Amino acid sequence: MLPVLKSIANLRSTDGFRAFLAVFMIAIVGVATIGLPVAFGGATTTVEAAEPSPEFKSYDSVAQVDSQSEPADDIYLGDNGSAVLHYEDDSGDLNKIDMGMDVSEGLVHVLVVDDIEDPDEELESANFSAVLDQQGLSGSGSMVMQQPDDLEQLDVDVTGEVTEDANEFDAEMSGTFTSESASTESVSTNGEISATADRFETSGEVSAETETDDMAAETDRYFDATLKETSNGYTIDVTQEQLVSEWSASQWETREQAKKTLQGQYGTVAMSLGGTSDIEVTNYDFQNESAGQSQLTLEYTVTYTGIDSGLEEQLTEQLTADQSSDLTRSEAETIATSVTAVDLEKISFMMDESEGSTTAEWDVAIANYDELTFAMFDLMEASDTSGQLPEDQLEKARTAIEAQQAADLESTITWDGSVEQTSSGEASFDATVTGDTKNWDAYIDELESRDIEPPNDVTFDLTAETDGDKLSMDGEFELETKELAGQTINRWAESIKNSQSSPTMSSETEEFVSALEDSKLEVARIDAGIKEGTVRVEAGARFENMSAITDTVSDSMSISGVATEQTNETTSMYVYVDDMDGIDTASATKSDIEHLSVVGPETTVHEAGEWDEEFPEVDTDSMSEYLEQSNGESGSKTTDSDDMPGFGIGAGLTALAALLTTLVLRRRP
User: Fold this and answer.
1) Segment (H or E) for 48
2) CA-CA distance, 434 to 417, in Å (whole number)?
3) How remote is the C-alpha of 340 from its chain's centroid?
């Protein structure tokens, strides 16, 4: 509990915008604190001492108290091996803090509410809500804040989906902001990328305009090159215009010298690959200019022959000699041949620089690389001598490529954008990006016919806009997939194993990670927000087998639950214990239990039958209802505009990770 109180106190010294970011940290710390009660117990019930001794509600699942946990302020002994541990903390002026856990029902929950300072009033409201369950992950959020001083206008709209019927997205954004630069500049670009299982195409252009000066003419140049594949090699047609300095003029001042210079540049490539090259200069002009510079204009064609065979031989030798792979010469030759089998249908590039203006254009078409793709799978398998690459994953990847081929799947991305800066100190931008996939439904059918699970359904939507002096943002995200909660916790556990070598991993950590995989997380939810100077964080989770985790915490005491109670500036935590290390609590005194770490010199032990106290009860119905409030199967919470909205999805997973990690961190050597 103490880390939560300290974290909230730290918020009081931050400004409004930082307070918004702090919501995420509060969420993480808040949920992590659920692990603190885990170190002492599970869920609670209201208990009254009966004469001659009290009885406590018991649960089938057992959680165990950390053998090195902090001493309790009070211990109330029962007559059947049970006890209630009482811990008290000064919560200051914290508005509300409520924590609880019920091990038998696998429930954990935390709620923190407090006021924060926002002297600049930059942030008016912000929140996020995220739910992870066995049907998927969903989240939503929004934020309203004062418009930043340097932002004049902003409009962003991003949407996308991946479903059985479509795989597409669309993004539009525009805005204006102040700039410190006094120059006039502009940049614009547009283009397209299209890809199938065996063909890739892209074309587009980029242009830029800048203020000119007296030196601008010295950078004027033009270059245009097109590469094409022929029956026995390749040709490159080039047109270039440029200024030549005095020190390099001798390389270009005659047609013969220019051809010799070009032969040296291009011939080196041919020689290195065991081929030949030929240069044909079709247009040549060399004019002396002032200031020791000359203007060169060239048009020429480079013809390569015999390169493919040389490239195949070199690749075969390198792959065969590679000690990290287990390739025969025949397999290496197959891979090398697949490289040269790729069709370079067209590769062209043009760049024109003149008087502060630069333009670049490209047009590329490459085909028949499917053989190379499959050859790369063979190379990965041969190189994986340690068995780190799962064979089934490689096989699924192969099958997915085959499904793309069978469905003639084609993915396309197009873009168009510009940025312009004026001398008046304003900069504006405008951009659109779209993505679409043809024959997507056929691809899904092909995957299913090959017993491959199709991609998970994903939808997302993000908007941001300025209105008057306000900036607002809204976002939603939903991922639909079966058993995601369980898969997430298992993968997180695996990441812990993989991040630590076995010699350095403690036995306690190893035990915890194994228990983590057995806990079977069913659902986790987190909501956090700031509104009108108040921060509110609520989080919860449910496990099918919570005791799989809590049993790893201690061997001394079994507990059933935890609850908190707040009175004025004091927060009390009550831990329900089912078994005090096998001690007969009906007749025990402090001396009988003082060997336990929960008993300290200042601990007051109330013997069985000598007390009459009523303890708070964890409202498991409300905890369950909080986790079950949903919008559809994914479990995402519906948020009204008047409520504190939600923003961010990753924080939910991080909070859950913090919750579980605390179980290990609470253990002391």
Assistant:
1) none
2) 12
3) 37
The distance from CA 585 to its chain's CA centroid, rounded to whole angstroms, is 51
Q: How far apart are CA 158 and CA 318, in angstroms?
A: 47
H or E stretch at 211 = none
Region of residue 291 (left: phi > 0; alpha: psi -120 to 50; beta: else): left
Which region, left, alpha or beta, applies to residue 41 given φ > 0 means left and ψ of -120 to 50 means alpha? left
Respond yes or no on whether the N-terminal peptide bond of residue 455 is cis (omega within 30° of 0): no
DSSP string, 391-455: HHHHHHHHHHHHHHHHHT-EEEEEEEEEEEE-TTSEEEEEEEEEEEEETHHHHHHHHHHTT-PPP
Q: What is the mean pLDDT of residues 21-37?
A: 32
Q: Give the separation between CA 522 and CA 625, rounded to whole angstroms.
A: 14
Q: What pLDDT, in 10s, does the model give residues 486-502?
A: 677 677 666 666 655 44
Q: Write out 241-300 in H/E/C secondary structure.
A: EEEECHHHHHHCCCHHHHHHHHHHHHHHHHHHCCCEEEEEEEEEEEEECCCCCEEEEEEE
Of the CA atoms within 13 Å of residue 655, those in its CB half-sphere come to 35
Taking 80 as the threshold, does the pLDDT of residue 335 lie above it? yes
DSSP string, 552-610: TT-SSEEEEEEEEEEETTEEEEEEEEEEETT--TTT--HHHHTTSTT--TTPEEE-TTS
Type of residue numbered 214: D
Q: How far is CA 8 from the centre of its chain?
A: 26
Tokens 């909230």 found at: 8
Q: What is the pLDDT of residue 650?
A: 32
Which string of DSSP letters, residue by residue, matches 163-196? -SS-EEEEEEEEEEEE-S--S-EEEEEEEEEEE-
Tokens of 386: 């340690």
CA distance 382 to 328: 10
Q: Which residue has the higher pLDDT, 187 or 132?
A: 187
Q: Residue 250 corresponds to which tokens in the numbers above?
A: 């001798």
With a pLDDT cut of 90, the percent of the chain lying above it is 34
Give the Cα-Cα-Cα angle 394, 457, 453 (nearest 5 degrees).
35
Q: If residue 317 lies in a helix (H) or strand (E), which one and from where to where?
A: helix 307-321
268 exposure class (CB count in 10 Å sphere: 0-12, 13-18, 19+): exposed
